[in-house]
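Because discrete structure vocabularies remain unfamiliar, it helps to consider an illustrative case, giving the amino acid sequence and backbone structure tokens:
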Amino acid sequence: MTRSTDILITALAPAVWGSTYLVTTEALPQGYPITMAVLRALPAGLLLLALTRCLPGRDWLGRAFLLGAFNFAVFWVLLFVAAYRLPGGVAATLGAVQTLIVIALARGILGTPVRAGAVLAALTGIAGIAMLLLQPGAALDPIGIAAGLGGAASMAAGTVLSRKWQPPVPALSFTAWQLTAGGLLLLPAALILEPPLPPLTAANLGGLAWLGLVGAAVTYWLWFRGVARLEPGTVSMLGMMSPVTAVVLGWAWLGQALTEVQLVGAVIVLGAVWAGQAVNAAGGARGLKPREEPA
């Protein structure tokens, strides 16, 4: 399979994640962020475990829970805190800083060289997301900003460590381990901090099914598959597709207007993602080799 195909398959994950805001606001009960995160991660992880019938060995158990914390438990909790305390555009722009953090962590943990072109592409993409999402006079809450940056750092650490720690199992099993671990870590917080859920409607169940089966099980399998085959910088740049999808869905589904500045921002983001792939492809031939997963 070619590198271009791997990139396109991996890009499907953040493209689908862009639907999370629409589904959350239109189909899920409000006021239960941690519980919704548990119901997104844990059933999906248990389903994948049942399908793969592959449990982590004792030597991988701790790593699975650490990665589950970085990629799901800590990341999702901080993401919800940022979303509640900041305008959506500010939270998404802070989240895009993840790309720069990945570049720094990959240098320290994996020995990946820092390429000026990759840094420039990441900065350009962040600027494009700001044009796409930021509104004039957006409030800047210190706790929200800290949560947004912390969430970006958590996901960045999870991405880099998922590349460093590649177990001798298929990506689907690796995804099952992390989703299950992340859901189990979130479960006590949901039970302690949030009230019981009200009776769920058909729309609630449909939204949870989409976020769990497609937005978690399928997409994170594609994401971790890409992490195993591509450079961390390449994968993290693809994450910028998510806010573009979110804005397009808001326009198509909710009738939200798009300004000229937003359209220019979307073009800049897509151009930055393309440029980032080109830079990392040129360096990848001299750096990390793609890892083929076991059958």
